[in-house]
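## Example record

The block below lists the input lines for one assembly entry, exactly as stored, with component labels intact.
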Amino acid sequence: MDTSLIAGVCRLFHTYVALGESWPMTKERAYFEAITLKEHGHLCPAHVPEVYHFDRAMSLIGMRYLEPPHIILRKGLIAGIEYPLLAEHISEYMARTLSSHHFFTVQPRSTKRAVAEFCGNVELCRLTEQVVFSDPYKVSQYNHWTSPYLDGDAEAVREDNTLKLEVAELKSMFCERAQALIHGDLHTGSVMVTHDSTQVIDPEFAFYGPMGYDVGAFVGNLILAFFAQDGHADPQNDRKAYKDWILRTIDETWNLFHKKFTALWDKHKDGSGEAYLPEIYNNPQLQLLVKQKYMKDLFHDTLGFGAAKMIRRIVGVAHVEDFESITDAGYRADCERRALDFAKMLLKERRKFQGIADVISAIQKVHT
Amino acid sequence: MDTSLIAGVCRLFHTYVALGESWPMTKERAYFEAITLKEHGHLCPAHVPEVYHFDRAMSLIGMRYLEPPHIILRKGLIAGIEYPLLAEHISEYMARTLSSHHFFTVQPRSTKRAVAEFCGNVELCRLTEQVVFSDPYKVSQYNHWTSPYLDGDAEAVREDNTLKLEVAELKSMFCERAQALIHGDLHTGSVMVTHDSTQVIDPEFAFYGPMGYDVGAFVGNLILAFFAQDGHADPQNDRKAYKDWILRTIDETWNLFHKKFTALWDKHKDGSGEAYLPEIYNNPQLQLLVKQKYMKDLFHDTLGFGAAKMIRRIVGVAHVEDFESITDAGYRADCERRALDFAKMLLKERRKFQGIADVISAIQKVHT
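Predicted structure tokens for the full assembly:
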């Protein structure tokens, strides 16, 4: 490639992650981000910026410059901008990246090697374990919330046995289940967008983990964006239409992901994969049953992880600008409480939801 | 240690595993067996033979010689010998080895490193995937059964959609879930016994996998031994009392494992582990709920994997001497069919079983 024609940018990794100087991190995370960008870029070039150069010693990635008007999706959601292709694009990214390492397209041999390599990204996995699955459920110096308004709500999270019982299961799955090479931090701040472009960035938390963690991160952060909208309404724009667009986007994201993921499964079912051998899964009824069971479990994992990601953004260490940018603390707390209560219900009762439409209805019920 | 005082034996690994020359295997499995013997021996020295020397280049393990009257447990079960301490010993081995790598006693950092290393044992994992979770459910040159008696039964296994649906879930768990450093082949041929000694050998299939695979392998093979007893009865010994002893041993194995595993959990709950932080799981009711949920899931995994291990021993490539030593083919087939039908039911309906006592009753119902 003729680099003189390329608009490039250098991403230089420092010792500290976004959480600040209390969280020194190995620069090795640059390596895991670089190889994940390359792997995911190979699988889904349309939605992952190209890596031109990686210098491990320098912890430096030379990659495509995402030119204006690309902005961070979260900022677009706060500004009330509709992205008509977002669901189409992000579902394409998730279906391609998550399905490829599913055993129906990849040989266990190469997968096991890759799993082994990504076990090296242990520090960032441990950070996630702490800030997502542990700190919000205990007294921690790192936790904060809109006080004093949510003091009782934060305490209620720490004292909810049923909630903590379910979180234990999700944490075990996060730590133990090497299902696919996941992005590991797929919230709306890890996606850059324009009206017709969607680019997934910052996979420094990538490892072999449960697929539902990626899908849940994205869906959960859209739900957070939804509950924050009332805080961004003004006399010129009550945000009602925009809230409807967010709900449609949540609905389309899951349904398109489901459609594309299962289509890739069908496409590869006679391929080199070993999980669902055509000689065993040899009749249409069985193939349907297997897919339905698999996607139902993935859906419930998605809701569980998505809810956990919502909770940690309200009573944990790192909050989201969707809420933080609401200046009236009392009003912000009302929005956050609605999101928190919904997330607690979703995490505890996720297995009762048959499909994404049920989730949309539940959000609407909470909100009206 | 003064080696002149030690009765030792050398285990030299060849290119082929028990399945014969159709299955060439890397000698590297000697390395995984050696480090697993050392690790499990460190955790449970009473029931794992000591390794004196390992030569990786030679694929040679110098280890304790298990002197007579030690014999392979499977042969003792065929001979109708009772081992009064078997359940006590094997439950101790399983509780100590499986709990130690559970996150409540081991730091994720070291666990991740170990998981990465054992990903190298990919060939033997793939062999298990094929012979346990795939071949019995499809037409395979390797499958065989007591023909023609079980021709219809073998075909029924290959055409049972519900069974294959459940096997897919177990195979995914086997491939994806790095829960503990498991033995990987804990059937009654991997245990040597005397009246008062129980020694676990041959962990060449060891890797980070689901705990239920080990517990299930042992329990499933005891159930096979039970269903084979009628084939070993003679006018002098109808084996009725011995069948009762096997059922008592199954019952005690699970109940003692449950008791010891949860006791180790309690012992380490304030320790260095990170899965169940005492600041989160901070009240007796919650601690009980978490343990009950965890052990219930482990019990159902155990029944599922145990049933899968039974099925593969009747219609798959490698059979067990318990049945093979029954010379009358028609009579052997009757015993095998009872075991196969029970295993199919157990695999499909495992979640309905509340405890091991339900399993014992179900075995007795089938049998009378």
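Chain B has a mean pLDDT of 92. Chain B has one domain: 69-367.
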